[in-house]
Amino acid sequence: MNHNTTNISAQKKLIVFLDCGDTIIDEGTEIRDDHDIVIQANVIPGADVMVKTLAERGYTLAIVADGNAQSFKNILTQNGLYDYFTTMVYSETVKASKPSPRMFKAAIGALDLSEQDCNRIVMVGNNLSRDVKGANQMGITSIFLSWTPRYPKLHADESEIPQYTISHPLELIDLVERLNDKLA
User: Fold this and answer.
1) pLDDT under 50 in the chain at which residues?
2) How many Cβ atoms sit within 10 Å of the Cβ of residue 11?
3) Cis bond leading into 152, ω under 30°?
């Protein structure tokens, strides 16, 4: 990615972990091949702007998602978002699915962070039992994107209660800025 150095913001302290399906990509638009690999899908309206804006403002972005690496490579590349992520952690390669701490620890390690950094990480996802519960048990700030009708919006127990809830991807930009300012 070629960015003019005058446009690059200083690196922000807050780190943003993002789920992919129904957080960035609309699962309802997925087209899969015979091997269940997603070969085409559309972004949720505003999700591409959200990813690009956060990256341009100096936030480190990581994908932490359940599924096959090739599916994510296909759809993120196709939608022009692949290069905005510093690292990508998939259940296929980690051999675990969220809410397993292994998924989050893999992303933390890939960014050369330690578990002491969990207080400056947010996890954004559409699934209370995976994204929110997994973040909460790691001490990572959980942000529930309640955009999709495909998943429950009511928590099953205390471990699934998000610290923040947003209903549209673009709402994440201001929330992340506020949370980053609290760290400063």
Assistant:
1) 1-7
2) 8
3) no
